[in-house]
Specification:
14% strand; 348 residues
Length: 348
Amino acid sequence: MANATDAGVLDTLGMLGLTLGLPDQVEAAVGLAADLDGLPSHREIENVVVLGMGGSGISGDILSAIAGPFMPVPVVVSKGYECPSFASEGTLCFAASFSGNTEETVEAASEAAAAGAHMIVLSSGGRLAELAETWAAPWVQLPGDIPMPRAGIGAVSIPPLCILEQVGLFPGASGWIDEAVTQLRRRRAELERPGNVAQEVARAIGRTIPIIYGGGAVGAVAAARWKNQVNENAKAPAFANAHPELGHNEVCGWGQHGDVTRQVFTLVQVRHDDEHPQVQRRFDYVREVLDEVVNDVLEVRAAGEGTLAQLFDLVLVGDLVSLHMAFAEGIDPGPIPVLEDLKRRLAE
């Protein structure tokens, strides 16, 4: 297992240690949502909105995929400067930003609060923390020692699930979280051994461009997380899509240029146990179609009891794959200079 002390491995922000600490982060995150005052009753809530971008915004994707199918009200994830126009006194709105200063989230959250929504802020501080006090809204204080939002996926995504349980919109969340912690610890032990699945997948991808396919809402979140982590940690291009939608469009795009795509792309199929039977058949068909036109077709299967455990299992494997890709190329996975430059330009 490569680590920050190995020759040739550069990891100035300790991303490897933070990634391997995910089981403990998820467990500790339950406490972040404890003893919050000012939570509404589920009888007051007509819809749930999650505002956030990037590594903070994924909390909304996880909430929607995990809790959404069981909730009596709709969930909308909004990533941008605007708050959904339907936001009102019947809206429970989570505003997530690790720094508390993400400009899109601050602006959208301000709109939601002005519309009368029940606001819940998740941040380590910043402008959102100040606004939470102004709004008399519950503030979930995220850890201040996590250097990059993407390294805090557990800290930012678990509290909303706990809050939904407290409000009465997602009973049973605690049990799902316990199962996720159990599976993450089991998977971590495997990933700390030489020749583990993350190393093997990273080696198979090599310098090709990974395309990650998932199935259903849970698979879509996992695939998107893999893509984003390759982008930010390995500083490499990657793409993601999900069944069944990709079977209505993207699969058609592999009909030409096989001599080129065979040298450029590797398909990674991330699988879980709750896939629709027809989605399972779609995975088999796409593997058959793409086998001759991509460098390789890889498959990673989730383990664990419950959908949340399987989603976080895929997250942990994918995060380690992206780190191994970075280390193999001598890339420091932590800093993201292009994003810092973008923020500076927008602030001018």
